[in-house]
């Protein structure tokens, strides 16, 4: 493995497919405009090749769903080959393009970027605050409740439904995300990554894919229900819109709109739309507990601009530079997806003197940009002033790229930004968060999983375990 140093825009850890002999030694700073997917030639590959993607098991098992589902598509040849559909892990090509374009336009049709969706988010934030209030000021861990509320936003777009915070089935699904993240750093994953043939040992695959399998069973149930009640004249949600495309393109062997792709895309939106935003929000609350002065300043701004009664709207953001800066700093400092999503060069590539051969796995070191010492005044501190000018006005920073960049930039960025601002502002409008007096100060460090996790917060844990057990019983 060779680490390419000092990129101006985005840095990459490059993992050569075979030998590293073909790499030239970097000598100067290099500019990398997020490489591989932007440069893939379109064209004469077969449909099957277009959707196949070679990648190491450590990444496969996070994202691609149940082993049973993909098992027939697995083969072994100095690594694992999977046929992957959906958006997140789909190989750059026509199928990915069609599904990404469709997903973006359907999300817009269903309210993304419009007032109606912002109102849905504020409504959900209100439900969540009521659930917080029901704790009567006692310490508790808001982990699952926040996940549930955030997930409800993407669920209402994709499934046309939300789930109550005490819905036992849904809470079980939410705990599966954590299982997946924990397993991602587990010993079995590491071993399988080093010795991919292990996947063929009976029991290994089912253990690795157990949680995904359960998530996909849940999603299959929802899709089956939709199919049973589908009315072509009524577009209730994303699944209905996708079913319409499946119907329209029936008989076209090259169509991306097949049922497997429906399941994978719904899985992508559901998982990507739940864990990322809720983890960021939990980091936000953690930082507010750790830095009460910053929390006070946000609350003062909320009092001035919104007051205590009116619900926050997206229009408020322009008048709230400090809060906006804090929300950005939460994302910069928590840096929850430090290595982005892995990509692969689909042809030999030459970038400013680097030769990167075809089929090289690339991981983008987003962390090196979000914590770049030459850009940020205090890269390793929580410092909202990173996003404020001398007059206290909000400033955009080029090196703020938690959503990555290029053609594969996060599809849900707009939704995530809206959710972060509205949830966070609603929380601080209604509550002050602090560490229980008898508890030690939690760390502001990170737990490494595929995405980074908040550390356990002791005082909250006690309550949470009771609460979670109570909910799941
Ligand atoms: C704070 C919240 C979020 C963060 C930090 C985040 C970050 C990211 C990152 C780093 C990538 C990889 C980009 C790349 O491959 O270079 C990504 C991809 C993606 N995200 Fe997000 N994301 C967030 C929220 C969401 C939400 C709410 C959705 C749901 C709509 C979503 C859907 C996706 C999808 C579908 C992709 C794959 C895009 C593609 O490959 O074309 N994300 N996200």
From TrEMBL:
Transmembrane segments: none annotated. It is found in: Membrane. Its main location: membrane. One of its GO terms (biological process) is xenobiotic metabolic process. Heme binds at residue 410. The keyword Acetylation does not apply. Its cofactor is heme. InterPro entries: Cyt_P450, Cyt_P450_CS, Cyt_P450_E_grp-I, Cyt_P450_E_grp-I_CYP2D-like, Cyt_P450_sf, Cytochrome_P450_fam2. One of its GO terms (molecular function) is heme binding. GO terms for cellular component: cytoplasm; membrane. Keywords: Heme, Iron, Membrane, Metal-binding, Monooxygenase, Oxidoreductase. It comes from the Eukaryota. SUPFAM superfamilies: Cytochrome P450 (SSF48264). Belongs to the cytochrome P450 family. PANTHER family: CYTOCHROME P450 2D6-RELATED, CYTOCHROME P450 508A4-RELATED. This is Uncharacterized protein. The lineage of its organism: Eukaryota, Metazoa, Chordata, Craniata, Vertebrata.
């Amino acid at each position: 493995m060779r680490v390419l140093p000092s990129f101006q825009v985005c840095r990459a850890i490059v993992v050569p497919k075979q030998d590293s002999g073909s790499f030239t030694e970097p000598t100067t700073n290099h500019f990398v405009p997020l490489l591989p997917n932007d440069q893939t030639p379109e064209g004469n590959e077969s449909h099957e090749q277009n959707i196949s993607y070679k990648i190491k098991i450590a990444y496969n098992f996070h994202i691609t769903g149940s082993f049973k589902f993909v098992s027939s598509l697995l083969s072994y040849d100095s690594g694992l080959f999977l046929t992957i559909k959906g958006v997140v892990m789909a190989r750059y090509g026509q199928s990915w393009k069609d599904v990404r374009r469709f997903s973006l336009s359907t999300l817009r049709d269903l309210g993304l970027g419009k007032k109606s969706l912002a109102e849905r988010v504020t409504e959900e934030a209100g439900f969540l605050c009521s659930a917080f209030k029901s704790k009567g000021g006692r310490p508790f861990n808001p982990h699952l409740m926040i996940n549930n509320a955030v997930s409800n936003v993407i669920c209402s777009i994709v499934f046309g439904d939300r789930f109550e915070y005490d819905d036992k089935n849904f809470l079980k699904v939410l705990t599966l995300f954590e299982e997946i993240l924990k397993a991602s750093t587990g010993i079995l994953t590491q071993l399988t990554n080093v010795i991919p043939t292990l996947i063929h040992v009976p029991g290994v695959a089912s253990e690795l894919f157990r949680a995904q399998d359960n998530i996909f069973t849940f999603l299959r149930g929802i899709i089956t229900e939709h199919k049973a009640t589908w009315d072509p004249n009524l577009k209730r949600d994303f699944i209905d819109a996708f079913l319409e495309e499946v119907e329209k393109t029936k008989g076209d062997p090259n169509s991306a709109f097949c049922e497997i792709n429906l399941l994978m895309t719904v899985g992508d939106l559901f998982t990507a739309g739940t864990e990322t935003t809720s983890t960021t929000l939990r980091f936000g609350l953690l930082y507010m507990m750790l830095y009460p002065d910053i929390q006070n300043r946000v609350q003062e701004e909320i009092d001035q601009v919104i007051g205590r009664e009116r619900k926050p709207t997206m229009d408020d953001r322009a008048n709230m530079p400090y809060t906006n800066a804090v929300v950005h700093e939460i994302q910069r400092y928590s840096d929850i997806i430090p290595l982005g999503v892995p990509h692969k060069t689909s042809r030999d590539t030459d970038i400013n003197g680097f030769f990167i051969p075809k089929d090289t796995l690339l991981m983008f070191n987003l962390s090196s940009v979000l914590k770049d010492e030459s850009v940020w005044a205090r890269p390793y501190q929580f410092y909202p002033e990173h996003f404020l000018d001398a007059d206290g006005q909000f400033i955009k920073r080029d090196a703020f790229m938690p959503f990555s960049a290029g053609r594969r930039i996060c599809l849900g960025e707009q939704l995530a930004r809206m959710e972060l601002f509205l949830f966070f502002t609603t929380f601080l409008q209604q509550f002050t968060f602090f560490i229980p007096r008898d508890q030690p100060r939690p760390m502001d460090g990170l737990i490494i999983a595929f995405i980074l996790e908040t550390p356990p917060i002791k005082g909250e844990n006690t309550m949470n375990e009771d609460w979670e057990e109570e909910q799941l019983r």
